Amino acid sequence: MSDPRVRLEVDGPVAVITNDNPDKHNAFDDAMDLRLFEILGELRERADVRAVVWRAEGRSFSSGRDVGAIGGGEVDLSHHELMRRGHRGIQQLFDLDAPVLVAHRGWSIGASFQRALLCDIRVAADDARFMLPEVAHGVIPDTGGVGRLFQICGHGVASDLVLTGRPMDAAEAYGHGIVSRVVPPDDLDDTVLEMANKIAAAPAVTVKMARRVIAHLAEPEVRSSMAEELIAQTFVNRSDDYAEMRAARAEDRSPVYTGS
Length: 260
Fold this sequence. Notes:
Structural class: alpha/beta
Oligomer: single chain
Number of helices: 9
Order of helices and strands: EEHEHEEHEEHHEHEHHH
Helix content: 40-55%
CATH topology: 2-enoyl-CoA Hydratase, Chain A, domain 1
Radius of gyration: 18 Å
CATH superfamily: 2-enoyl-CoA Hydratase, Chain A, domain 1
């Protein structure tokens, strides 16, 4: 499988994953998801890779899910099965020996923001914006990042972003610790690559063990959160309120929600 909209390049000890669907602000569809998961699987087996950069072409890291592709592709999988496949795919991040550094520019929305939250380090251009708009669409964030967002920001900020769907700019994201550095857009790729090379130059076993210690603090709660998301999102998709939201939009009327 090879989708050119998600590329992998390896230069010595540093691997670079690039989102390359700029005409759609790097929105992901099923084929791009599968290519990303294939790349992560390859990197799991690459002992020569000491650091990974995840970046994007164009104006945005990723605007999330390609809504124009929803309903296409593999119709033989239930939503629950698609979520399980997505969780298995992105959880490969936890199995890498090499840390993953994400370079955020423009928008990072929905599942793509959540996936970035599961990585080790996030750096933002000062034009970066972050958003979790799922609740406004009648569903919940279901890619695991909310567990990490809760760990980083706490209950209040995580609830604000999830329940209101408001955007957060780079300065606020830095203030909450979501990103560790904010740089001018023209410096973003060079900054993250320099960080990756510095990590790659350190003793590999030391980096691996340091990452392992941090992972043992963070991963159990995130994995538990993802398991809860599988149950909750499946319930939401079969709920009366979700059906009412879709019917109201189709009929151009105000919805009447019952909480069931």
